[in-house]
Design brief:
Blueprint: H1 2-36
């Protein structure tokens, strides 16, 4: 099942990217809020 393997790996990559975005975007958002206020 190459399609299933490709799909699962794609989901893993998307989950990894989402986690990275949250990890970097949330602290940046807090910093910008602190800087603005």
């Amino acid at each position: 099942m190459p399609f299933h393997g490709s799909g699962s790996s794609c989901e893993a990559v998307m989950a990894c990217l989402t986690a990275l975005l949250l990890h970097y975007c949330l602290p940046l958002g807090h910093r910008s809020k602190l800087t603005v206020s």
